Amino acid sequence: MQEIVNGLRFPEGPIAMPDGSVILVEIARGTLTRVWDGKTEVIADLGGGPNGAALGPDGAVYICNNGGSKHYEKRGLLIPGGAADDYLGGSIQRVELETGKFDTLYTDCNDNMLSGPNDIAFDETGGFWFTDYAKFYDRTRDLGGIYYARPDGSEIKEVVFPISDPNGIGISPNGKVLYAAETNAGRLWAWNITGPGELELLPTPARGRLVTGSKELQMFDSLAVDADGNVCVATLLNGGISIVSPDDGSVTHVPTGDPLTTNICFGGNDLKTAYITLSGTGKLVSADWPTAGTPLWFLNQ
After folding, report:
1. 166-203 confidence digits (pLDDT tens)
2. 73, 144, 146, 157: which has the fewest Cβ within 10 Å?
3. What are the helix and strand counts (H, E) for the chain?
4. Is the distance from CB of 284 to CB of 246 less than 8 angstroms?
5. Looking at the domain assignment, is residue 100 inside a domain?
6. How far apart are CA 47 and CA 66, in angstroms?
7. Closest by Cα among 301, 271, 279 to 288
8. Tens digit of each residue's pLDDT (9 = 90 or more) over 216-238
9. What is the pLDDT of residues 245-282, one digit of tens each?
10. In terms of Cα–Cα distance, which of 102, 100, 152 is closest to 126?
11. Shortest CA distance to 5 belongs to which of 40, 38, 41, 43?
């Protein structure tokens, strides 16, 4: 793995841009940041806790903002905690890359506050799926869910609720399956997509089918899907990337050395360069990957 930059404040949501730069969020800093050649540039100071990011059909970046969390320095790692003291709720934001201007699209769904939006994935119609990880407090926590929304602010709907701490979200190469990671249990769930914003819901705890459940002491964070359909899940505690086969649930683990490995995306001309956020140590690294990533709508198409 090659280090691209260090000194980031809990990086997440990487987007490998066509110009070779990587755009990501710094959750603890509250920014959308561009990284290239070991340098960083703040695109927008979003406040709260920008957590997930994706390029939309209009060339803007759409942000899942969790509203802000406490962070602690311990044993050389930056570790997230519960809701920040100034937390007022989560939101979905839209950022213009050229100017850094941003707007808030959604703060609630059916009059229910978005608690902690976490990760986001666009489909071919230009709508996007996102997870709400929810917030936890000293003795209580909110309930999480999976949502679908339009980028013009015209529609948001709750599709799966409740689901425990949903985190990473992604779509299969053929566009027919939605995946989401359940963090604390180390589970990966799948749902058949039946239409824009529509899923086949099953009588299971997460209303989907279980792809894999971890036997290790580890948690699942954000994810990306490769061109072969494998789900590459950033893995906490057992720091690395867990490559999950959707066919049989088998897992191959690639260690990174950071117990707070939070996300992965693919870039380069052949989409075989993996960019990985090592959030505990504040680094963005790259690695040659054996399988290309799935081309993303509005970025690689």
Report:
1. 999 999 999 999 999 999 999 999 999 999 999 999 99
2. 73
3. 0, 29
4. no
5. yes
6. 10
7. 271
8. 899 999 999 999 999 999 999 99
9. 999 999 999 999 999 999 999 999 899 999 999 999 99
10. 152
11. 38
Query: Max Cα separation, the chain?
Result: 49
Q: Which of 258, 212, 213 is nearest to 235 (CA)?
A: 258
Whether residue 59 lies inside any domain: the answer is yes
Whole-prediction pTM: 0.97
Return the closest-CA partner of residue 168 out of 141, 187, 149, 196.
187
The total number of structural domains that make up the chain: 1
What would the two tokens of residue 8 be?
Answer: 């980031």
Token couple for 290: 């054996």
Q: Is residue 301 part of a domain?
A: no
How many residues are given for the chain? Answer: 301
- Rg (the chain; Cα; Å): 17
What CATH number has the domain bearing residue 255? Answer: 2.120.10.30
Q: Does residue 95 belong to any structural domain of this protein? A: yes
